[in-house]
TrEMBL record:
Any one Pfam family match given in the protein's UniProt record, by short name: FlgK_D1
PANTHER family (UniProt xref): FLAGELLAR HOOK-ASSOCIATED PROTEIN 1 (PTHR30033:SF1)
GO MF entries: structural molecule activity
Domain of life: Bacteria
InterPro entries to which the protein is assigned, alphabetical: FlgK, FlgK_D2-like, FlgK_helical
Listed GO CC annotations: bacterial-type flagellum hook; extracellular region
Organism annotation: Enterobacter hormaechei subsp. steigerwaltii
Family that this chain belongs to: Belongs to the flagella basal body rod proteins family.
An example Gene Ontology biological process: bacterial-type flagellum assembly
Domain Flagellar hook-associated protein FlgK helical: 92-328
Record's protein name: Flagellar hook-associated protein 1
Classification of source organism: Bacteria, Pseudomonadati, Pseudomonadota, Gammaproteobacteria, Enterobacterales
Record-annotated Flagellar hook-associated protein 1 D2-like domain positions: 337-374
Length: 380
């Protein structure tokens, strides 16, 4: 009779535990960070008699967590790829909105100018036609200036987004290091890492992969994870987290660059080309390719058009016979000194002797001790 009571008691205890697990699954089923649990039931033991083996009932031997390391790795990779493309797309949409407005963009203003100039060429002495050309010139100038300001503002917002992403990466890394610490402590005490901490760990890894591409190595015993960047530098190692740092570039103070800070506090620049996944990668790619191209193309169109029209206008005369002058005034060209320059050379002025050779790219100016040398971006 006592054995029957013991069997019933163990069965009820297991059933109660099973209901708790089912209830937890139902309650947290809508949570994106929750992994389904299942009860692991084993025999409580028993005794062997002449008539065979008699069990003492059932007991809970553990709680399994539905987890697939390979699937999680694939998920993190997909999240990183999506975040990279999405981060770039968000910024590109701003350029598209700027250039796609048919009522307010450079292309429309250029077409309107050419139309008014065609009308003037048919009747050069017509006052209203001349006024229309000058009005179109003024509108085009304003469009160039407005577009340049909007691209500059977009560059600043991209810098801000890069700084925000770096802060998020550092914050998540610190949280992961703390979770690692708790996992090691609990494993040492109980032998099994708790499922809620493992869920928290995986949620943080997914958030981190959204910001930057990572590789993860998991300790199968404690559940601790070590995280490295795509260039193999450690970001989280056990209870320690390294840092990323966003600062102004030495060569261009208007450009934010990212550096890696190791455990000794040594700072080294991050090669942007090595970051190919995550939101940070999308921001880097947008800035170095899309935004840079838009700025350079806009600047070249404005410079070439103004220079060519000034050249042509100087060949003409006013109705009174006065030689023509410049239609457009171009701002003086400026060079930004690299903060790391060690020499004492100074650059007083920059001028273009042949505007037809100017390309839509950035230029570098170096002083070799005797001469100044100008190189296009392709020669860097």
């Amino acid at each position: 009779m006592n054995n029957l009571f013991s069997l019933a008691k163990s069965g009820l205890s297991v059933a109660q535990s099973a209901l708790s697990v089912v209830g937890s699954n139902l309650t947290n089923g809508m949570s994106d960070t929750y992994s389904r649990r299942s009860l692991v039931i084993g025999e409580l033991g028993g005794m062997t008699t002449g008539n065979g083996f008699y069990g003492y009932g059932a007991t809970v031997t553990g709680v399994d967590r539905a987890y697939d390391a390979f699937a999680n790795k694939q998920l993190r990779g997909s999240v990183s790829n999506w975040a990279s493309l999405n981060g770039r797309m968000e910024q590109l949409s701003d350029i598209d909105n700027m250039l796609g407005d048919e009522s307010d963009n450079v292309s429309v203003s250029i077409n309107n100018l050419f139309k008014s100039m065609a009308t003037l060429s048919a009747t050069p002495d017509d006052g209203p036609a001349r006024s229309s050309v000058f009005s179109s010139l003024g509108v085009l100038t304003q469009r160039f200036n407005d577009s340049g300001k909007r691209l500059t503002a977009l560059e600043k917002s991209t810098n801000t987004n890069i700084e925000t992403s770096v802060k998020e990466i550092n914050s998540i890394s610190d949280q992961l290091a703390e979770v690692n610490k708790q996992l090691e402590r609990v494993q040492a005490q109980n032998g099994t890492p708790p499922a809620d901490l493992l869920d928290q760990r995986d949620a943080l890894l997914e958030k981190l992969s959204e910001q930057i591409g990572i590789d993860v190595t998991e300790n199968s015993v404690s559940g601790r994870v070590d995280v490295t960047l795509q260039d193999d530098r450690p970001l989280v190692f056990g209870e320690n987290a390294s840092k990323l740092q966003a600062t102004a570039s030495e060569s261009d103070p208007d450009r934010i660059v990212v550096s890696y800070v190791d455990s000794n506090g040594t700072t080294t620049p991050v090669n942007e080309a090595s970051i190919t996944k995550g939101r940070l990668a999308g921001l880097f790619k947008f800035r170095s390719e899309d935004l840079e191209l838009a700025k350079n193309e806009l600047n070249q169109i404005a410079f070439m058009m103004a220079s060519r029209m000034n050249e042509q206008h100087r060949l003409g005369e006013t109705p009174a016979g006065v030689p023509g002058g410049d239609l457009f005034s171009l701002p003086p060209m400026k060079a930004v000194a690299n903060a790391g320059n060690a020499g004492g050379g100074t650059l007083d002025a920059i001028s273009v002797t042949d505007y037809t050779n100017v390309k839509s790219e950035n230029y570098s100016i170096d002083f070799d001790g005797t001469n100044w040398n100008v190189m296009g971006e392709d020669a860097w």
